[in-house]
Design brief:
single chain; about 100 residues; alpha+beta; three-stranded antiparallel sheet; two-stranded antiparallel ribbon; 3 helices; 5 strands; about 25% strand
Length: about 100
Amino acid sequence: MAAATVTRQQLAEAVYQEVGLSRNESADLVEAVLAEIAGSLSRDGTVKISSFGSFSVRSKGQRIGRNPKTGEEVPILPRRVLVFRASHVLKDRINAGLAKAAAGG
C-alpha cells in the first residue's frame, strides 16, 4: 500500500466539508494556521498541539560526514532541524487503526 500525501488543498476541502466555510475561506484558514505554526517555530522553536503532538527545532552541531560514493570525508555544517513528537493520544489512535486492520476490520 502506497503512502498518500495530504495536500493543502485536501486540508482546505476537509475544512470546507466539516465547518461549512466557503472554499476560499477554508483555504485562507488552512494557510493562516500553517503560517502561524511556521512563524512560531522560527521565533520560539516549539509548537504543541494538544492530542496531536509537538514540533520543535533542534540545533545540530558541525560534524564530519562521508560521501558514500567516494568515501571522501566532508564537513557537515551546523544547522537547525525540525523534530515532531507524536502525543500518546495520536499514537493510540494510530495503533488502534492498525489493530483493526490486523483483525480484518
